[in-house]
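B., you asked whether I could sanity-check this one before it goes into the benchmark set. Here's the sequence:
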Amino acid sequence: MAHVTYDIVEHDGGYAYKVGDVFSETFPTHQAAHDAAAAAAQRQQLGGQDEAIQYQDRSGTWHEEMADGGDRPETEVEDALKD
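And here's what the prediction gave me:
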């Protein structure tokens, strides 16, 4: 099973959560970023219907595949920042 970690970080004059190399929008407070990360992690646990998806990999190649709506990753929020 896949695992997704939402890291709380300082970003662009405020705070954001980061998954891999991707940042969320910037939030004005640490608590707002933490709350948004927790909400995103919870939403990612919700199953849905199987659907066809398209995505582009790092080399720029596009792929199409069927995504299993019940195949959800484990999620966690890591927050090493102090308020």
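One thing to flag: The beta strands are 3-11, 14-19, 22-23, 51-56, 62-67, 74-78. Otherwise nothing jumped out at me.
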